[in-house]
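Standup notes
- DV: blocked on the single-chain target, sequence here:
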Amino acid sequence: MLRDIDLQSIQEVRNYLKEAKEAQKILAKMTQEEIDKIVESMANAAREEASRLAAMAVEETGFGNVADKTTKNLFAANDVYNSIKDEKTVGIIRRDEENRVWEVAQPVGIVAGIVPSTNPTSTVIFKSLIAVKAGNTIIFSPHPAAAKCTVEAARIMQEAAERAGAPKGLISCITQPTMAATNELMQHKLTDVILATGGPGLVKAAYSSGKPAFGVGPGNIPVYIHESANIAKAVELIIQSKTFDNGTICASEQALLVDESIKEKVIAELKQQGAYFLNEDEKRKVESVIMVNGALNAKIVGKTPQVIAEMAGIEVPVDVKVLVAEETGVGKEYPFSIEKLSPTLAFYTVKGTEEASELALKLLELGGLGHTVGIHAEDEKVIEAFVINKPAGRIIVNSGTTFGGIGATVNLMPSLTLGCGAIGNNVTSDNVTVTHLFNIKRVAFGVREMPKKDEAQKEAALTK
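- DV (later): unblocked, structure below
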């Protein structure tokens, strides 16, 4: 039975959709220069408000930390913006005169942007920029635990767009987030496409809505440290990546797969750089707070190692950056083997590349198919042998998977929506960006004629 708040939120969605439809008509008549001016204004505003939005997100959700959430906001405002600002998205975007084919961009229309609680403000900045650059309007559905900061981020984007000549209704956000409102947004006849970032249930709902949808998947990221790796550098990159925003990015490392021949060196380096190795008793206690009722305990997500340790009834030094447990098994009965979204790592010992490859596959099958894999090695033959058959959309070499996955430290498209392909039940394995949010019409000129009937018959007879 629908409550009053459900009915109010559904009506709010319908109002926003009507406004978005009118705004989209205005946007469709704008030139490339006018669109670009609007997007530039939005990026500038996001840059100016990055710190304040980060503080709001941490205060409201309790996830991560202000410094790293500021960096995420700036990544969207700078890296993502710079990667799309010169893209042609209006009118004829390519002319192949040799083959006499023109390509014409056509906006998809109204985008439904589903926003997670782990990365709320950076997701709004990112999705607003790519949606508007492609000539679309966008309506956001925030996670209830991050509603205030999500609404504020959308307001900043809309006001910046209006200052540059955009219509009202370009960017909206549900102020009373309910499941009824989210379903209405995803299923309404005026919604054209869904950008779904969130938990598996919400992504599945997006794909079941009857609308085209770009979804994501869980990222149970295995990272192999081969004996040819620069150990000190690999550990430095892994620690930086895993601890960023207390592990809330789904591309962060979840398990280290370490060659037996360098195990002791890697452990020593990890300890030197801030890792705390749990003994068996401590490991059991931390395991008890990682999972609740067979699923990840939301209370550890984005928390510091010290907070997680306190929850488990143990004490760790104040300078500890990540909790590490040696592990041998894979499955829900081994909590350290799942995606943990926190500064916690599983440590596996392997006897070479073949065993590492088999173990990586098991970890992906547990909850990360199609997402990301990492490897640290200097031997390119080993790298090729390891990566060639991995069911992952991104394979990050000698870089932290958090930053590599989103395109910050490697030459992948900067993005905060990481597709997992068909194997991860997604429509694409790409880093989703502006080019996914417009259709391409192809204007094709006649360049040859079909053979006439009698000529075709003669040619067929000659070939017998």
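- Follow-up: The first helix runs from residue 4 to 27.
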